[in-house]
Amino acid sequence: MTQLIKWVYSGGMVNQRSGPVAETPAEAAVLTAVLAAGPIARSDIARRTGLSTAAVTRATQPLLEAGYLRYAPDAGTVHDVHARAVMGRPSQPLVVEASRAGAIGIKLTADESIGVVCDLSGSVRICQCKPLSGRSVDAVLADVDGHVKELIAAANHLGFMQSIRDVGLSVAGDVDHATGVVRYSPFLGWRDVDLGELVAERTNARVVVENDVKALAVAEQWFGLARGLQSFALVTIGAGIGCALIVNGALVRGSQSVAGEIGHLPVGDPAVLCHCGAHGCVEAEASVDAITSRCRQVAGDPDLSFDAAVARARGGDLGVAAVFARAGHLIGLSIASMVNLLGPEQVIISGEGVASYDLLADAIREGFTQQVFGSADRTVLHLQPLSFEAWARGAAAVALEELAFPFRDPNERRAVWTSYGQ
């Protein structure tokens, strides 16, 4: 018989999940520092975290003993973990033991399930893309079930120290990370789907669900361009205009898990209706679909594709080019509004729409400069093309974060699902 346990955490010292730093903030700080900056010596960890060297050494010992950390290969130490995990010797660099654990990440689009297996260091060990058989909840659940089980079976041959049971799912739209419910996914046409529980029940896995842009930001924070940054924003241009925020090293979800939705700032034409039901949203004029639709009108070609519109704009079609410029201007205004509020060190711009970035760049910078306040104009806007594999790694990164830091924030409600046979 298979039972489903659903747990919701709302404070206290609940510890139903296993993980290396379930109860000790110092251990969490040490593991975070090594993930972000390893190889790194304990003396440098102390400087980064504000902990004393002795506190770092005490926190390091159980992580070494459990196999989540190890000394870097060039440290010249023996392979006996217990012999190495002693007080002192703070100059020996530490790294994450990548093969200690891993996670599966699946990014759902309107048409595909992109799945990866990642090790604890965030390296993608397996990547598979599979078409969805349909967009109904039942069809997607069946596809995800098969994909997860196939990836778990493949991961069993990769030499992980423990079997993979952690799965991260990411999907565009309004996702409640605390409950795993997809409240609204415009591209799948879903409302109020309890995706976390449904997938866990089928797969016998521990499942976490996150908005796809927020998940991508977690991966960039731990393993990508934003390593070492305490504050940054990730803006994506694609089927929607997404944004995720990292402030003081932590992902900002907000009480309803929708923090950072700059795609729905009302800086556009108030006559234009957005799919969300509001008017004037950035997304209603600057998403790939919105740009394509407007370019078709301007060009008088109802079959014009986005790529063809890009080619026309680059070829000198001023009307089509003006559509891209308008979209870029609105994106720039929305980025400036976010920067004015939060002051990130850097804004990373990504998504499938960056293929047309040369048509958007000047207008984004113009809109940004027009709206940004004071010296925030010096905020770096960094272009970062990312593959769908990177999006799937984002889903895996959220699962790895839950594995490594169960219930890390006592002020945040978290829910995790586990199915098991009895």
How does this structure look, described?
- 38% of the residues lie in helices and 23% in strands.
- It has 422 residues and is of the alpha+beta class.
- The protein folds into three domains: 18-96, Winged helix-like DNA-binding domain superfamily/Winged helix DNA-binding domain (Arc Repressor Mutant, subunit A), CATH 1.10.10; 100-218 and 389-421, Nucleotidyltransferase, domain 5 (2-Layer Sandwich), CATH 3.30.420.40; 230-383, ATPase, nucleotide binding domain (Nucleotidyltransferase, domain 5).
- The strands form five sheets. It has a five-stranded mixed sheet.
SSE inventory with pairings:
Layout lengths: L1 E8 L15 H13 L2 E2 H8 L3 H13 L3 E3 L9 H4 L8 E4 L5 E7 L3 E8 L4 E8 L5 H19 L10 E6 L2 E3 L4 E5 L4 E4 L1 H9 L2 E6 H12 L8 E6 L3 E7 L2 E2 L31 H4 L1 H12 L6 H9 L3 H25 L3 E5 L6 H15 L8 E4 L4 H17 L9 E8 L1
Parallel strand pairs: 5-8, 8-12, 13-16, 16-17
Antiparallel strand pairs: 1-18, 2-4, 3-4, 5-6, 6-7, 9-10, 10-11, 13-14, 14-15
Helix pairs in contact: 1-2, 1-3, 2-3, 5-6, 7-13, 9-11, 10-11, 11-12
Could you write a compact summary of the structure shown?
With 422 residues, this protein is an alpha+beta fold.
Keywords:
422 residues, alpha+beta, Arc Repressor Mutant, subunit A, Nucleotidyltransferase, domain 5, 3 domains, five-stranded mixed beta sheet, 13 helices, 18 strands, 38% helix
